[in-house]
Every structure is written in structure tokens, then in C-alpha cells.
Amino acid sequence: MCAISLKMAFMLIVLATLALGLSHSETMKHHDHMEMLKVMDSVHKLCPRITRRYSLVGKSVEGRELAVIEFTDNPGQHEPGEPEFKYIGNMHGNEVIGREMLLKLIEYLCTEYKKKNKDIMALIHSTRIHIMPSMNPDGWAKATRYFEQNGKHDYLVGRRNAHNVDLNRNFPDLDRIVDSHPNSKHNNHLYNKLEKLHAEGKIEPETKAVIHWIMANPFVVSSNLHGGDLVANYPFDLSKSGKPQEYSGCPDDATFRTLAETYSLTHTTMAHRHKPCDEADQDKFYLQQGITNGAAWYSVDGGMQDFNYLASNCFEITLELGCIKYPPAKDLPLYWNQNKEALIAYMWRSHMGITGFVKEASTDRPTTPISNALIQVKNLTNGKMINHDVTTAHDGDYWRLLIPGSYLVIASAKGYRPASKHVVVIDQGHKEAQRVDFYLYEAGQSDKEKLPYQVSEEVNDEEKEPGKNNDLSSIMKEIYDIKNIAKDEWNEDDVEQFRETLHELMDE
User: Fold this and answer.
1) Can you spell out the DSSP letters for 433-492?
2) Are 419 and 411 in contact (CB under 8 A)?
3) Is the distance from CB of 178 to CB of 187 less than 8 angstroms?
4) What is the distance, to the nearest Å, from the Cα of residue 287 to the centroid of all Cα atoms in its chain?
5) DSSP category for residue 396
6) Which residues, given as ranges, of the chain have pLDDT below 70?
7) Of 437, 429, 431, 366, residue with least CA distance to 400
8) Rg (CA), the chain
9) Which of 54, 271, 334, 389 is in Cβ range 3.0-4.6 Å of 290 for a Cys bridge?
10) What pLDDT score does 291 carry?
């Protein structure tokens, strides 16, 4: 009798475990706005030491909160040297897969951290992660009401916000500034150049809130999650000629392709043979490793990913997560299994390339950071400048996404002499980026020992390649050839002193 009871007890435990597993899957439902907030609040209560719940400044047209949850080991503050990452879902209100994937992701990050998952713990300890499940809660409500009233989903109803504006056509069109001034040294942080735009339409409250968010935080990598196709889309979104379709690569085209492939190749389906969303005979995205240039697919003006790249230091791609924009709830676990590892792998790309600080140099231990310093990069493999600069944040910290290769990296700031280093970038996987710091001397200093460029240091985790910019003279020649080094911020004496020092070094 006792044995039978034990056996029955064991079977009951097994059945209960299975039931819990099934109920866990069933919890993947479509959440309305209040339910979404409840999930976010519940995660924060479960993991209070690594999360913070906050909202963007401003609300949706209909007054709904634009809610965000943050994951990091010190919530609520930017840690110097720590990259910041963001996911945005549901920009188009009737494209709901991203919304539910992000809600599932925040639960996953919390539970895996509590389970002491080493990869998740390392990611959260080294990255400040911001997740906004819905940028367009009003559109979601409209799409859902339509389904409840008609028993079916419409391909367009709920896509736009409550003012009937497509939020992914509502960002300031900074591409036009770049296209009209292709050789300008002003190749980034163009938001303050808006006065040059001749026809700037009304910016919606949701768009304004996200713009403020982008400009207020040193985001490094980002993605916005959509639906209706299955592909990772990278800048530029706007064609340069005005054609509806043409490849429009940005200066960091190779880096963006790597970012997009990080997601597509980790996704279980995106880069593999599958039924095309447009019912065509062949899936052109599958043939392209599951990625596409935005304008090569179709040209978009006023898009969010181009705005991120041209207004800030942030590299953003757009993820299309499935053919069906508003799938039934029973299919959500399948989408989660397809996207889970890709969502994690993509967040790790915040640590791709190099990172470091730009600080004042002095005889004492240098501690004063230089904010808004310029980080410029020349690709020594092809000999070309990457015509897209990043700037240091408040603490003098910077992050420069780069694919593996050999680069000349230049740091400069108004009132200081530029400094440069030869850097060989390697792919370090799920580890923090290579550290490359710069110390700048004031422009007026005349001590010959304080060189205008710190060229003697070489950052290289691999053996030097013979004959490839390894000696001081070669590196100085590379520097001397650079045309966009912000010499307009030097006076004539500074420039002349630099030239004299350069020639003295070359003669040694």
C-alpha cells in the first residue's frame, strides 16, 4: 500500500511538472496595455536588483504610457565604460510579434539570471539594456478592437498611431542632409542641423518621446522589431537617387551586414530555406543570408533606424519577425523558440569592436574625461576613412563598432591635440570589447615631448603583419594623409608645430 502510494505520488509530481510546463507555454498570450505593464512590474519585483521600470517623457496620442524596463547590475544610472542597448517593439501597432517576444525576453532575462546562467549574468553585468515592448500602444488597441469586432485581422488597421501617422515615416529625414553634402565632415549627430531641412512635418508624440530617449542616452546598438516578413534590414532605408529600390549602403555597411547576420544566422529560420512571405517562387532574403539593405528592399524616408545612425552614436537595424503580423496566441511559443537565441546574441553586439575613454593628459595621473571628443577611423586594409564618426559621452567613454581588421583610430577634441593608435580588432565573441584609451594634450602646449599624436602605442592582440603599418613612420604617413582630422580647430601655430614634429620623426 505504501509502495503504491509512493508510486502514485511520483506520477502526480511528474504530471504536475508537465502541467506547469504546459501552462508556462500557454502564458504566451497577447497582452493588452495594462497586462503588458503588469508583466513588466512583475519582472521588476522578481529581479529588483538588476531591473528598473520607467517611462519615456511623454505619452501616446491617447495618453498611454510608453513603458521601458532596464536590465543592468546598477539600475538607474550610466556606468562609465558600459555600453547601452535598446530593443523597441510594436512600432506598427498591428505588428505584434515583437511586442510579445520582448515581454517574453524580459521574463527570460530575469529567470535565467536567478538561475545563474553565466552568459546572461555576464551580459547584464557588462551592458545596460533597455526594452520597450510597445512604441505604438494606441495602434495595438485599434488593431485588436478590429479583430474583436470582425473576427479577422486587417493588414493595415492599427499600423499607424491614433493620428493616423506611420511612426516609421515620422522621424526627421537626416538622410537628405547627408545626400546633399556627401563630402561634408559633418557626418553624424545631424539632429542639430534640422534648420537645413526645408519641409519638416509634424513630429508625433511617440516619435518625440523616442527622439528624446535616443539623444539622452549613449546607446550603442539597437533594433526595432516588426512583422510582415522574415528578414534583418540594415541602413540606409532611403535611396540616394529617389528610386523606389536601390542599394543604399552607409559608411559602416560591412559592420551593419555583420549586425544583421548576427541575428539572421542565429534565428532558427530567417537565413534558412522557408516559405516566402510574398508567395514568390524563391525567397530572395534566404538567398542573402536572411538580410537586406533597407533601400534595396524598398525606399523609406523618415525611418527610425537611419535617424539613430545619423543623429547619435547608435547603430540600429530593423527586424521583421514573421509573415503574419498578428498571429494567433497559440503560435507565440514557436516564434519565441525561433528568436530566443538571436535576441541574446544580438545584444552581445554592443561589445563589438573597441571601447575606451578619452581623457586629458598631464604629468599627474590623468583622470579628467573629455566629453564630446571625436573618434575617427581609417580602415588600413582598404586605405579609406570610414566617413562616420562617433563622439564620447559625458564620462569621456566611447564605443566604436568595428568588424575584425586593422584600423587607425584618431581621437580629437576642441582645444586639444589629436592622438591616434593602430588597432587590430578581433571578434571576441561574448566578451567585452577591446579597450583603447586616449590621452589628449592641450593644443597650446609646446613641450616637444608632448607629441600632437600618441602614435607609439599599438593595440594588437595578434602578431603584427610584416609591412602593414607596423613602424612609426608608416603610421605617421597614414595620419598625414587624413583629410578630415578637424584641423579647423587648431590655430596656425599648432598646425605648423605638428608638421615640424612629424618631419623630425620621419627623419629619425
Assistant:
1) PEE--EEE-BTT---TTS-SS-TT-EEESSPPPTTSS-SHHHHHHHHHH-S-S-GGGS-H
2) yes
3) yes
4) 25
5) S
6) 1-27, 176-201, 279-283, 363-366, 445-508
7) 437
8) 25
9) 271
10) 97
Do 396 and 369 contact (CB within 8 A), yes or no? Answer: yes
State the burial class of residue 52 (Cβ atoms within 10 Å of its Cβ: 0-12, 13-18, 19+).
Answer: middle
Judged on CB neighbours under 10 Å (0-12, 13-18, 19+), 371 is middle
DSSP-derived secondary structure letter, 28: -
Give the strands of the sheet with 291-293, arranged side by side.
51-59, 65-71, 128-132, 84-89, 219-226, 315-322, 229-234, 291-293
CB neighbour list of residue 340: distance below 8 Å, 6 or more residues apart: 104, 105, 108
Dist. CA 106–CA 133, nearest whole Å: 10
**DSSP characters for 274-294?**
---TT--SS-TTGGGTTEEEH
**What phi and psi values does residue 178 have, to the nearest 5 degrees?**
-65, -45
Q: Quick one: how many helices (H) and strands (E) in the chain?
A: 13, 17
Is there a contact between 302 and 246 (Cβ–Cβ < 8 Å)? no
> pLDDT value at position 250?
95
Q: For residue 236, say if its preceding peptide bond is cis, omega within 30 degrees of 0.
A: yes
| CA pair distance 439, 413, nearest whole angstrom | 11
Strands (E), 138-266: 219-226, 229-234
The pTM for the full model equals 0.83
Q: Which of 82, 320, 360, 478 is the catalytic position? A: 320
Residue 374: all three cell numbers together = 571625436
Which residues on adjacent β-strands are paired with residue 424?
Answer: 406, 460
3-state class (DSSP) for residue 313: coil
Label residues 286-318 b or e (16+ Cβ within 10 Å = b). Answer: bebbbbbbbbbbebbebbbbbbbbbbbbbbbbb
Other Cβ atoms closer than 10 A to 381:
11
Q: 320 catalytic, yes or no?
A: yes
Q: Would you say 410 and 420 are in contact if contact means Cβ atoms under 8 Å apart?
A: yes
> Which pLDDT value is given to residue 277?
86
How many whole angstroms separate alpha carbon 3 and alpha carbon 7? Answer: 6
Q: Which of 251, 261, 462 is nearest to 377 (CA)?
A: 251
SS3 37: helix
